[in-house]
């Protein structure tokens, strides 16, 4: 049995948390045993425990590296007899793992900063070599970003996020009933944290233009985050409050997405987009920005609409097209689900991740 400690520095149940659920829920329990260390008090900790996954609480908030966390992690590694430390944006986990003699894997879920001067790139290269055995990038775009920041290319393996398509079969929509939205009212939906990199202001401005063509349309936003107040203020300024619903964080988004007519991802920076894959698995036509790893998922007019990042006009144009041309929307949705099945399955993600684990364990 191979013991793996997953370390997260974030309390939010965002992309990294959902990635971890998908990984652990289908991983071979006869070969691998997983425990998790993360800051306490958040939705992430609660959901992990609900899945009967052993969770250790890290003190020190969401800091990615501090001495107390390193000490705590070393104790956990010793108690649990850990073989591999798999970190998700936790430098403390990488340090603790290497000091304790473990193999260390890091998954980079976002683009992060890239480039930098010679000294910064050299430092990143050395730190990567010393404290990490392998780095998993969730897209080619993330790999390029890592290389530009100084990470050696031979340390990086691309493993796309994957989802279990069977979990998206026969999902009944609950949103229209919950919000009292009529069957013929177009619903444009978004699922993402309310943070700057998601480009929500462009989507809201685009929706303002959509309402001129479809006056009854509704924009449903699922997620929480620091921009909630400012985004609500933007809706007020545009006079569209009555047409925009902020639903906050929701645990099971499948039944909500199932009632979307169009899924929108307006990011200005995106590693890949797990919610995008979920919408595609439900056969929804998606309008997404051509940034980061998104073009590795969406092919324009084949399985969705790909638009320039930072343009509310292009977003609005594609949303209107998706609503008005129902035959095209259905065809795009069918191709979207096919794309997920062929390229972004949880089975493939888990097999490739397990291969990384076995390769680094065999390395002297």
From TrEMBL:
Keywords (A to Z) from UniProt: Transferase
A UniProt-annotated Pfam family: Glycos_transf_1
An MF annotation (GO) of this entry: glycosyltransferase activity
CDD domains registered for this protein in UniProt: GT4_PimA-like
The Glycosyltransferase subfamily 4-like N-terminal domain, residue ranges: 13-166
Gene3D superfamilies recorded: Glycogen Phosphorylase B (3.40.50.2000)
Glycosyl transferase family domain ranges (all copies): 175-338
This protein's name: Glycosyl transferase group 1
Organism the protein comes from: Tepidanaerobacter acetatoxydans (strain DSM 21804 / JCM 16047 / Re1)
Taxonomic placement: Bacteria, Bacillati, Bacillota, Clostridia, Thermosediminibacterales
């Amino acid at each position: 049995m191979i013991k793996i400690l997953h370390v997260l520095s974030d309390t939010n149940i965002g992309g990294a948390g959902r990635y971890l659920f998908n990984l652990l829920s289908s991983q071979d329990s006869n070969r691998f045993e997983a425990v998790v260390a993360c800051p306490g008090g958040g939705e992430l900790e609660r959901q992990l425990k609900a899945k009967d996954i052993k969770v250790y609480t890290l003190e020190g908030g969401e800091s990615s590296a501090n001495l107390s966390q390193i000490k705590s992690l070393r104790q956990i590694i010793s108690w649990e007899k850990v073989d591999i430390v798999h970190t998700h944006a936790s430098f403390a986990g990488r340090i603790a793992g290497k000091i304790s003699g473990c193999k260390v894997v890091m998954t980079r879920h976002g683009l992060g900063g890239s480039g930098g001067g010679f000294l910064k790139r050299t430092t990143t290269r050395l730190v990567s070599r010393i404290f990490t055995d392998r780095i998993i990038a969730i897209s080619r775009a993330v790999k390029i970003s890592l290389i530009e920041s100084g990470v050696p290319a031979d340390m990086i393996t691309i493993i796309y996020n994957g989802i279990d398509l069977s979990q998206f079969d026969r999902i009944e929509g609950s949103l229209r009933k919950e919000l009292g939205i009529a069957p013929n009212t177009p619903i444009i939906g978004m699922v993402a944290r309310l943070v700057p990199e998601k480009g929500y202001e462009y989507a809201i401005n685009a929706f303002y233009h959509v309402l001129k063509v479809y006056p009854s349309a509704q924009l449903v936003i699922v997620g929480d985050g620091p921009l909630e107040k400012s985004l609500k203020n933007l809706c007020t300024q545009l006079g569209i409050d009555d047409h925009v619903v902020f639903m906050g964080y929701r645990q099971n988004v499948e039944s909500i997405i199932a009632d979307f007519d169009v899924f929108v991802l307006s990011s200005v920076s995106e590693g890949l987009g797990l919610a995008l894959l979920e919408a595609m698995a439900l056969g929804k036509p998606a309008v997404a920005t051509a940034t980061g790893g998104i073009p590795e998922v969406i092919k324009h007019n084949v399985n969705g609409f790909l638009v320039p990042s930072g343009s509310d006009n292009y977003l609005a144009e594609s949303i209107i097209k998706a609503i008005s041309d129902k035959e095209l929307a259905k065809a795009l949705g069918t191709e979207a689900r096919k794309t997920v099945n062929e390229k972004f399955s949880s089975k493939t993600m888990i097999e490739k991740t397990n291969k990384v684990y076995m390769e680094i364990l065999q390395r002297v």
